[in-house]
Structure to design on (477 residues):
């Protein structure tokens, strides 16, 4: 059967480039087969592996109710139905590109200008990344990507394009900062393997770290790509999720300040999936400062246009300055509160997380709970958390983290009560685990003293029975 398939289908159809076999997706499957519901399935798996921003839908729904003309499926908007339903120009509706450009400027504190004619639409950031990968690199070429990074990059930039990703190893000792040494080392490794490096992909703010890149790192990265004459792709899809200082600095600001850089090498990936919380609308944006890339990507965009119905609605929503200003500030406040609940909830039981100020997740440090500092131990702990504590969190290995023991926990895709249940489960789990460790520690000490006595020949040992096969058997809500 498999052999036939390999013969009949293409290499792309039969390889594992989609990356579905990673634990990141396994967690989703575990959730799908046993989803938590407060009444119908209170012992089910809570989804904490999905970076969705559900906290501000009240504002959006209020706007939709107050603006029936913006939808073509209302009495007030039905007159526009025909125009919207017919074939569209692949440049996109001018009012949509204008509104998105203005929104991107607002999110960046109006410090930069975006030209609507450089906005290319795509099916989410996913489609934008792939389109850009097709434009910048040939099969076998590579992009450098600092670790830990969003697992979808492995699919989006590489699967159908044949492009490779080369990790730039970042470490917890300096809060996963991207250093010049790490960039050079990754570049050198690629060269030694005869891989042509075509660019560097930065994700700012970072998924999974929830941190923003500082001016120094952005400038260093810009200098690095300028020296090597390679591209710089900045995935800025979490830019409006920054909820506290330091503020977000877009690469658009940095190039404005650096006259010597070559704008032809700079490209921004954007989407409304995180900042507005609309991943279902598949609004992705490729913004390139390179004319040839804009032209080619626009032609390619025929494969992943945003439906005109969505463009029509978004154009209207994002042109409403009062709504946009309110949304941006309210959303940030709500995220700040959630983040505090999550990080403080973890801290109460001695669990640390990387200090962060953006994103829809915490980068949780469970190194102390690992049996040993290995990726096998990380997976073992993850299995306990998903199948016994029933929380779908994502292990660091799926983000190519170089050190075991880090996990991403999403906090903005659930209501307050579910959040409380999740935290209660974490508390119970950690307390039990600590209890076991204390008992184990006491037992080890006892065993040492007993074995010393045994050496003396004065005592007989009874066979030891482990009190705990799994510390999590009762770790339910
Ligand atoms: C860093 C990053 N880039 C791109 C994407 C894909 O976003 P979209 O839903 O717009 O395709 C995600 C989604 O989680 C992401 O976290």
């Amino acid at each position: 059967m498999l052999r036939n398939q390999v013969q009949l289908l293409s290499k792309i159809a039969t390889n594992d480039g989609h990356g579905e076999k990673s634990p990141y997706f396994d967690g989703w499957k575990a959730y799908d087969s046993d989803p938590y519901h407060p009444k119908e399935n209170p012992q089910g798996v809570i989804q904490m592996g999905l970076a969705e921003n559900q906290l501000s839908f009240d504002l959006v729904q209020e706007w939709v109710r107050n603006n029936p003309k913006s939808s073509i499926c209302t009495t007030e908007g039905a007159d526009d139905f025909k125009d919207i339903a017919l074939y569209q120009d692949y440049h996109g509706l001018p009012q949509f590109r204008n509104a998105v450009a203005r929104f991107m400027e607002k999110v960046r504190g109006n410090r930069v200008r975006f030209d609507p004619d450089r906005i290319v639409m795509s099916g989410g950031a996913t489609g934008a990344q792939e389109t850009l990968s097709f434009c910048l690199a040939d099969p076998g070429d590579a992009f450098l990507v600092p670790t830990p990074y969003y697992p979808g990059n492995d699919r989006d930039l590489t699967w159908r394009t044949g492009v490779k990703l080369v990790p730039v190893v970042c470490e917890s000792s300096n809060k996963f900062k991207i250093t010049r040494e790490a960039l050079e080392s990754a570049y050198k490794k690629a060269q030694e393997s005869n891989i042509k490096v075509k660019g560097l992909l930065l994700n700012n703010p970072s998924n999974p770290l929830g941190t923003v890149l500082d001016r120094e790192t952005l400038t260093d990265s810009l200098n690095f790509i300028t020296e090597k004459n390679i591209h710089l792709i900045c995935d800025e899809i979490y830019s409006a999720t920054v909820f506290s200082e330091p503020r977000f600095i877009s690469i658009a600001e940095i190039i404005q300040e650096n006259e010597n850089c070559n704008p032809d090498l700079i490209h921004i990936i954007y989407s409304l999936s995180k900042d507005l919380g609309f991943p279902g609308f598949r609004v992705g944006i490729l913004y390139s400062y390179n004319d040839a890339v804009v032209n080619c990507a626009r032609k390619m965009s025929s494969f992943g246009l945003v439906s005109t119905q969505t463009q029509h609605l978004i154009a209207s929503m994002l042109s409403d300055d009062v709504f946009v200003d309110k949304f941006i500030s309210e959303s940030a406040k709500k995220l700040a509160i959630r983040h505090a609940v999550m990080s403080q909830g973890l801290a109460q039981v001695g669990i640390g997380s990387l200090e962060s100020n953006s994103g829809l997740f915490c980068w949780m440090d469970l190194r102390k709970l690992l049996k040993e500092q290995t990726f096998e131990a990380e997976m073992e702990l993850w299995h306990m958390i998903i199948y016994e504590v029933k929380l779908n969190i994502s292990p660091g290995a799926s983000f190519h983290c170089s050190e075991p023991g880090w996990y991403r926990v999403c906090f903005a895709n659930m209501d307050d009560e579910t959040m409380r249940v999740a935290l209660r489960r974490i508390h119970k789990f950690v307390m039990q685990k600590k209890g076991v460790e204390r008992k184990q520690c006491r037992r080890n000490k006892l065993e040492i003293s007993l074995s010393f006595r045994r050496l003396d020949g004065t005592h007989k040992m009874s066979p030891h029975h482990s009190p705990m096969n799994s510390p999590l058997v009762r770790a339910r809500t």
